[in-house]
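Amino Acid Chain and Its Fold in Token Form
===========================================
Structure side: the spatial fold of the chain, written down as a series of whole-number tokens.
Position: the record begins directly beneath this header, with no further notes in between.
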Amino acid sequence: MADCLFCSIIAGDLPSDRVGENEVAVAFRDINPRAPVHVLVVPRRHLTSAHELSDDDGDELAAVFSLARQVAEAEGTADGYRVTTNIGRGGGQMVDHLHLHVLGGRQLGHIDSLTGDDG
């Protein structure tokens, strides 16, 4: 999708700090990290959010989560990390492209997805 920030990053049209990729997804550091490790795992195929996933998307979703696991291992957080996604503006989603947040590197408390505040 031409006007999608993450599609532009995936295509290499915008810079990012990539930390991994596979045939289905790309992983790069969040520019506004909420934890010492904050990596976004983004499917190459444009989907607005997880709400658009169907029963036919299982293999693609497994590959996205596999990359999230690889990121956690490479970042040294495999013993404890969080994987989350936001859906819609009311759910705190800021970019309309499905993405997982891989968060770790410290003890994580409750995170208010709308403000990013721990508490």
